[in-house]
Amino acid sequence: MNKVNLKDIAKHLGISIATVSYVLNGQEKERRVSSATAEKVREAIHQFEYTANQIAKSLKTKKTNTIGIIVADINYRFTTHVVRAIEKECQLYGYTVIFGSSYENPETFLTILNVLINKQVDGLIVIPVDNDRGYIEQLKSREIPFVIVDRVPEGSDLSIVSIDNKDLAYQCTQHLVKTGHQRVAFMSYQTGLSHLLDRKAGYVTALQDADIEIDQNLIIEIDEKNFVRGVQSGIDALLERGKSCDGIFFTTDTIAVEAIKYLNQKGIRVPDQVGIVSFDESDAFPLFHVPVTHGRQPLRQIGEVAVKMLLELIDENTPKGNTILKSTFIVGKSCGEK
Amino acid sequence: MNKVNLKDIAKHLGISIATVSYVLNGQEKERRVSSATAEKVREAIHQFEYTANQIAKSLKTKKTNTIGIIVADINYRFTTHVVRAIEKECQLYGYTVIFGSSYENPETFLTILNVLINKQVDGLIVIPVDNDRGYIEQLKSREIPFVIVDRVPEGSDLSIVSIDNKDLAYQCTQHLVKTGHQRVAFMSYQTGLSHLLDRKAGYVTALQDADIEIDQNLIIEIDEKNFVRGVQSGIDALLERGKSCDGIFFTTDTIAVEAIKYLNQKGIRVPDQVGIVSFDESDAFPLFHVPVTHGRQPLRQIGEVAVKMLLELIDENTPKGNTILKSTFIVGKSCGEK
DNA sequence: AATAATTGCTTAAACGTTTAAACAACATAA
DNA sequence: TTATGTTGTTTAAACGTTTAAGCAATTATT
């Protein structure tokens, strides 16, 4: 038994499809459907449990009430939290979410982009792919509203949601200094991505403001290809005698977790031997023997704002721009705090 | 400038829409389009970068190449891993994924169900909502192919992907016994859900097989409403003098993590004072000072199999049934293993 | 030479909606 | 009386595809 459609309802009531449609779309007043007819229609709709075929509707109205989101990998803490907020917010506004993962692969990214566009999504939220350069041009040439999350590319006619990476990195570094660490190291990925450059700038500025000289030996930048080994040899290098490093600022939670594992393994005591601060938290932190001091991005808010910006963009009544959200700083005990 | 459609292509070439469509769908042979014409069409398609409007296509073919998945919360380890596999598998077969979260709320679940059905998804994968009873009837009455993951409801004309919960729980318990623990406790949620009942059965059977008497005092079942307190008072109860509990089997990773946090906090040494095993792992385990022995569900495989079953169901050439996947058991050092 | 088969296309209906435009019936105003 | 409005409804085109059916031109068969 096939789903009942407008025609079925109309035939059953002996009226035209148009009339039924008007009632359904709340246009009885404008289209002067008599209240008797309207009532009949409502009854029939209820009786037959009619629900509109959104595909047909979309074809006609050119609106799918669907947004696409392209993430790097759903299996990241950042992603799940942001996606969760996006989906919640969309539920609120009657939008649904189609999603695809690029797995950091630019080609996959473009494939997904095409699929989503052919599905006629009303807009896109993009959590960018590392190392991908051309996607913004592709997006722009498609004339589809989109919002970029997290990463701030050049070019200002874009809609972007991000946080002040430099500021939060500044706070992280400053906290290490304030808790008595003199030789504060920096551990990050080897990359040209804006958010990580900003974090480095925050680190540098904080040290300068504290009149501490920057020591290039304390700056470790890891090749992602060789992640685990990179972290380990980075830690080894930092903690070798002579360097007298007494604090480390990790620019991502992934690096922090891997480093903490290794510190655990080597029996290095935190915070006694070395104080640590992480940019971003990890669900794993609570299992470490001491609460890890860290910066916290407002992931939920990032998702919410991204959706709001996108929906405004879709409704065409908004200027584009970069929305910068406030982060918070969570003080634990990994720097020897009282 | 609007997207180019079949009509544009046809007009440009001075041929009919039908011919273009036939070429596009690889029906040149059957429909006897001359190779000259076909070539012209292909060129034009390329030149204008034509891509089909999937909405129109779907309306006609009644196929959206989209599946819906309803999860409890994207923010769970189980969910992200399964969803990741589902999406990867779908990419392979040219399907896209629409998703919605029920947040454990049956009403939200039904709302999402309706939205997805109106979007004409070809099928559904459902990671069930705790405490929801009616959803299966709702699903069945909708005559839409669907696969249930993880939880095994009564009624056998369903397609289900699950693991052998009893068997894996048996292994977990047996391992505690084999590593010298005599007074093995069980900590789970207070629930009637099949997978947790099965895990309890595994625990009981393992002890019986080892000729150890079941002690109701060592069985803790936590009210989810009061989760953190429940875990803590459960641990307190188990470790109080007199009970001489020397091992605990946690039936979920969430319970295990919360318990480990509390053990940490209280300074209780694992595995010296108490050995622990967890059903399911957590990304947090590596930060614990000792590797946690645990059962591992084949999450990726669960996702893959769910998709395969669903696509077969959609193509109508498959019997339904319960596919039970093999789990593995990861030996750490949390039971005092050498 | 007449008929049949093949080739290469086109026509047009259909999918389930929305919506501008038309229309019939009646009421009101001049 | 004629024109003018108002009310309640229907008609039909359109959205961008797919696809069965039709048809003219050419080629093959008898």
UniProtKB/TrEMBL annotation, chains A, B:
Question: What molecular functions are annotated in GO for this chain?
Answer: DNA-binding transcription factor activity; transcription cis-regulatory region binding
Which UniProt keywords are given for this protein, alphabetically ordered?
DNA-binding, Transcription, Transcription regulation
- Any single Pfam family the record assigns to this protein: Peripla_BP_1
Q: Where is the HTH lacI-type domain?
A: 4-61
Name under which the protein is recorded: Transcriptional regulator, LacI family
Taxonomy, top ranks, is: Bacteria, Pseudomonadati, Bacteroidota, Sphingobacteriia, Sphingobacteriales
